[in-house]
Amino acid sequence: MKPCLLVDKSAGEVFRKKLHQLSLLDNHYKIRRINDKIAFPLKAPPTQELLAELKKLGDFVLSSMEFEELRRKPRDLIEALGDVLTPFELSLLPRSFDVVGDIAIVELPDELLHVKEKVGKALLTIYDNVKAVYMKYGKVNGAYRIRPLEHIAGEAKTETVHKEYGCFFKLDVMKVYFSPRLSWEHWRIASQVKKGEVVVDMFAGVGPFSIMIAKKVRGVMIYAIDINPDAIKYLKENIKLNSVENSVIPMLGDAKDVIETQLRGVADRVIMNLPSDSIKFVQVACKALKENGGIIHYYAFASEDKTFKDVEEEFIVEVSRSGRSVKNILFKRIVRAVAPRTWQVVLDAFIA
Q1: What is the rounded CA–CA span in Å between residue 339 and residue 172?
Q2: Name one GO cellular component term (predicted).
Q3: Hey, what CATH class is 179-351 in?
Q4: Which one of 27, 28, 299, 310 is at 20 to 30 Å from 204 when CA atoms are compared?
Q5: Cβ atoms within 10 A of the Cβ of 172, count?
Q6: Element (H, E) at 154
């Protein structure tokens, strides 16, 4: 039984606001409606001073009765698991994670692997839009850039549709590379492209750069290359899904081979989102540019051992080896942290 205030329905809102103002209303329980009366659950019986305040609003009856407890969703993992994990374990919980469509992908330290299922179930409880939870258990590697994932909660689904700035991307998180953390980069590059440009997206994946450009800018042509057959499969589906069949041409193969045999001297702009190995492709990217030059968006990793300045100097040297030169660095920034003291960075450079 809980103490409560019983008032006429017509005066309910006035009393509710006052009880909230006086910190008397217990929001952990559901307010009851009984015929023409409303019963407000109280944290504790009001003092004489508080009763005097309430009497100014009109008639009421102080009583007690049973109330249904409200089950409020936890706001974060710490709140959801506060009674389950130790203080040390709570301190190790991730503060952020990726959501791709309706699939959450979380990274856990070794100290939390024994409670991975509990973490997964907690994420399902907190976020209504999440239907499946996977845990990273290795690095992105190989030519296809696929990260090993382990299912820890929810539906055992791997295919989803991710929405980003009005674009839809169908993909399988176990078969292709996709990072929702690059959404602003996708938009930033698309915002620079002008009508009539030809773009070569050297490592297109399922099309986040290519499709966003095609949706945002009319009269462009984008050659979207990827070596992963599954990525090209989903790219073709996404081209149709976003109605950009006339602007995006999917091309399966190694970017070096495709450019050397089919795309020499065609591009106004080249996108190089392969930060682990992009330096190996700089010379062929230069070959894709038109004779009068163009822009390269170059992504790489920087660290304490290899600084952002080192990345820039290495890029400039590699461009010169192609017989061209960096006329101007138009823009550069740290895109995101990818590991302790390691960052993904981007250079926008005009190549003459």
Answers
A1: 24
A2: cytoplasm
A3: alpha beta
A4: 310
A5: 18
A6: strand 149-154
